[in-house]
Write a structure and sequence with these properties.
Elements (H helix, E strand, L loop, with lengths): L1 E7 L15 H16 L6 E4 L3 H10 L5 E3 L8 H8 L6 H5 L1 H16 L10 H16 L5 E6 L1 H11 L5 H7 L7 E7 L2 E9 L6 H4 L6
Parallel strand pairs: 1-4, 2-3, 2-4
Antiparallel strand pairs: 1-5, 5-6
Helix pairs in contact: 1-2, 3-5, 7-8
């Protein structure tokens, strides 16, 4: 059996004009994940990221050697576009500025998206699922025994839910639990693909490491 280790990118820049930039904390998180893996003697034979800067920079900060490949199917869904499609008269200020309201609205909006209740989204829920599956298939189509993937919370939630044949809503329940730079591990061989570990953060399991933990 081979391993597919999927890591969520480090903390991005919530509330900034450009979200797709790792914060200083996000860079520390990525380095901590890479250092922990090396300390355990784990190094990837293949590295795949999406095309987002926060994913690419997380891979760089982790510091592994294999040439990095990209697959756009690993990119996060565009929540801003979903919000604009849902709130056609303008997004409420609290959604933009209050973290609790933001994430409650995120959950409600994704559930509506899954039920096909959002008119003319940039991407349908079915299209999102299809591209995530295409990225998974691309990542495991290899002779490598240790594949490192850097992606985002929604994609990881969907990969996990799909591997468990869980209802669509379960993707979002998983998505909101995933910590920055957390590790989700799958085992694969041929057509077999199964979850081994979800949302693990052993690199935060010290008093100093615990200070690095974040969810957004």
């Amino acid at each position: 059996m081979a391993e597919l280790l999927v890591i969520r990118h480090g903390q991005a820049s919530f509330g900034a004009e450009n979200y797709d930039v790792l914060s200083d904390l996000g860079r520390q998180q990525a380095r901590a994940a890479g250092e922990w893996l090396r300390g355990m003697g784990w190094a990837p034979d293949r590295v795949v990221t999406g095309t987002l800067n926060r994913q690419i920079d997380t891979a760089t900060e982790m510091g592994f050697e294999p040439d990095r490949e990209e697959h756009a199917g690993l990119n996060e869904y565009d929540f801003s576009d979903l919000l604009n499609a849902r709130f056609k008269d303008g997004i409420p200020d609290l959604v933009q500025g209050d973290r609790k309201v933001h994430f409650r609205t995120l959950r409600e909006t994704v559930f509506a998206w899954q039920r096909d209740e959002i008119e003319n989204p940039y991407e349908t829920w079915d299209a999102f699922c299809t591209r995530v599956e295409a990225a998974r298939a691309f990542s495991v189509d290899t002779d490598a025994k240790r594949v490192l993937v850097i992606s985002s919370g929604g994609v990881i939630g969907q990969l996990t839910a799909a591997s468990l044949h869980a209802p669509a809503q379960h993707m979002m329940n998983l998505n909101l639990q995933i910590k920055n730079a957390a590790m989700t591990r799958f085992m694969f061989s041929g057509s077999l693909f199964s979850l081994n570990e979800f949302n693990a953060t052993p690199h935060y399991a010290t008093p100093d490491g615990a200070k690095l933990m974040s969810y957004s």
